[in-house]
């Protein structure tokens, strides 16, 4: 295993920000990961885990040993006539894994097509899109304790999944390296096409009896029409979470803004689209030097090239203050600030 010094992380964050790792190592197996964590030479050095960098904002260099888990593999470990269980390495590209499932007729993740990042980052964030969250298909998560090097298997319940949350972002933050996960998928999938955009796109495609491949293709078309490709414009997708507010607060908001959209979560809570709030506050298409808010999707902050993480962080704080001032709603970042 080779530990490198002063390594640029530009290629490992989708914002394309130029920050350096004081030390960097790429690990391709659980054994390699355990070895570096238990190595006396590195025992006292702070550790930072970096996967595909699709949900982080690097605001500074990282004075730590940056560990990149590049553990691959997709293996069938259980199967019946109706379901299949796959064990997947943390280093697998998430979208490649989704396409593997679609190609094999395994349903359950097709609504999560084209989400950037790796399989290892997916449970940490409980990624979700178009009516599906990863918690609905995860069986377990394998992780290694950074301090002890011990491996642990977390059940779905033990992951404490919430809206873009998990135990790995809360109580166990910075304590574990996710090395893989198992997924329980369906060979006889029930399609989720409830979102209006998905239904409309399927109709335009002429998919009268849609398959999981049709769902995947429709969602890829939608995402490409709304979201910039990180390979072309640096971004991390949705920068803010959609706020969830009490029903009474939403009713008051509608008195002033009758057109505000809202989606009931339960009898007491309504989800309000953060993109709508940001656009209504006048930020859509805003540009400040080499950074800005995307012209087609107000929920996406972008680096046009040469911007810094500190600049993007400052812009996000301006947007938060603006939305809070106009609507009385505090936006919380979905992106993790480093």
Automatic annotation (TrEMBL):
Q: Which UniProt keywords apply?
A: Cell cycle, Cell division, Cell shape, Cell wall biogenesis/degradation, Cytoplasm, FAD, Flavoprotein, NADP, Oxidoreductase, Peptidoglycan synthesis
Q: PROSITE patterns of this UniProt entry?
A: FAD_PCMH
The record's active-site residues are: 164, 238 (proton donor), 334
Enumerate the spans annotated as FAD-binding PCMH-type domain: 15-188
Query: What InterPro entries does UniProt report for this protein, alphabetically?
Result: FAD-bd_PCMH, FAD-bd_PCMH-like_sf, FAD-bd_PCMH_sub1, FAD-bd_PCMH_sub2, MurB, MurB_C, MurB_C_sf, Oxid_FAD_bind_N
Q: Does the keyword Cytoplasm apply?
A: yes
Q: Which cofactor does it need?
A: FAD
According to UniProt, this protein's pathway is: Cell wall biogenesis; peptidoglycan biosynthesis
> Where is it localised?
Cytoplasm
Q: Does the keyword Flavoprotein apply?
A: yes
**Catalytic activity annotated for this protein?**
UDP-N-acetyl-alpha-D-muramate + NADP(+) = UDP-N-acetyl-3-O-(1-carboxyvinyl)-alpha-D-glucosamine + NADPH + H(+)
Question: A Pfam family this protein belongs to?
Answer: MurB_C
EC assignment: the record states: 1.3.1.98
A GO molecular function annotation here is: UDP-N-acetylmuramate dehydrogenase activity
- Function recorded in the entry: Cell wall formation.
Regarding protein family, the annotation reads: Belongs to the MurB family.
Which protein are we looking at?
Answer: UDP-N-acetylenolpyruvoylglucosamine reductase
What organism does the UniProt record list as the source? Dyadobacter fermentans
Q: What is the lineage of its organism?
A: Bacteria, Pseudomonadati, Bacteroidota, Cytophagia, Cytophagales
């Amino acid at each position: 295993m080779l530990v490198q010094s002063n390594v640029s992380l530009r290629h490992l964050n989708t914002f394309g920000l130029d920050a350096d790792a004081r030390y960097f190592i790429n690990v391709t197996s659980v054994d390699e990961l355990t070895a570096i964590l238990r190595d006396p030479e590195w025992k006292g050095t702070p550790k930072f885990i970096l996967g595909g960098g699709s949900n982080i904002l690097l605001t500074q260099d990282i004075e730590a040993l940056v560990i990149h888990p590049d553990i691959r593999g997709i293996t069938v470990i259980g199967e019946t006539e109706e379901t299949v269980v796959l064990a997947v390495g943390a280093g697998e590209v998430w979208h490649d894994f989704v396409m593997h499932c679609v190609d094999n007729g395994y349903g359950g993740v097709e609504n999560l097509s084209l989400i950037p990042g790796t399989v290892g980052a997916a449970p940490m964030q409980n990624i979700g899109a178009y009516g599906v969250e990863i918690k609905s298909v995860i069986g377990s998560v394998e992780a290694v304790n950074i301090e002890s090097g011990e491996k642990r298997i977390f059940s779905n319940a033990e992951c404490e999944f919430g809206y873009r949350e998990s135990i790995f972002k809360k109580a166990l933050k910075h304590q574990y390296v996710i090395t893989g996960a198992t997924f329980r998928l369906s060979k006889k999938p029930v399609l989720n096409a409830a979102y209006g955009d998905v239904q409309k796109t399927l109709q335009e495609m002429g998919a009268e009896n849609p398959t999981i491949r049709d769902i995947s293709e429709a969602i890829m078309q939608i995402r490409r029409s709304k979201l910039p490709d990180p390979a072309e414009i640096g971004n991390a997708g949705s920068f803010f979470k959609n706020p969830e507010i009490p029903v009474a607060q939403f009713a008051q908001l509608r008195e002033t803004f009758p057109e505000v959209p809202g989606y009931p979560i339960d009898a007491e809570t309504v989800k309000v689209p953060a993109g709508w709030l940001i656009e209504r506050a006048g930020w859509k298409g805003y540009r400040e030097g080499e950074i800005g808010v995307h012209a087609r999707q107000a929920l996406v902050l972008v680096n046009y090239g040469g911007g810094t993480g500190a600049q993007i962080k400052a812009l996000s704080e301006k947007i938060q203050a603006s939305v809070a001032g106009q609507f009385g709603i505090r936006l919380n970042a979905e992106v993790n600030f480093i």
